[in-house]
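Render this sequence as a predicted structure.
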Amino acid sequence: MSSLSRDEVAHVAMLARINLTDDELDTLAGQLDQIVGFVAAVGEIGVEDVPPMSHPLPLSNVTRPDVVRPSLDAAEALAGAPKAQAQRFAVPRILDEE
């Protein structure tokens, strides 16, 4: 397992535009090296017989069934509109394009 050097941590901090003191660089170099080791350990787990999945828990559709039911007609829907035109809601123009 390769260890991260203090210079590598300083370079990453510079790329992220994070100002770190010398003590912080020393501390983070050790911590990041441990994290890289943990990630490497996860890669060593035998998962050959585990099927790929998109989600760890089974999912079910929680939407209601699509059932046709009575609704407002155009006149009822437009009755409360401040302005209507050609059986549609009329709204102020927001773009200058024709």
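Summary. The mean pLDDT is 87. Residues 6-43 form a domain with the Histone, subunit A fold (CATH 1.10.20).
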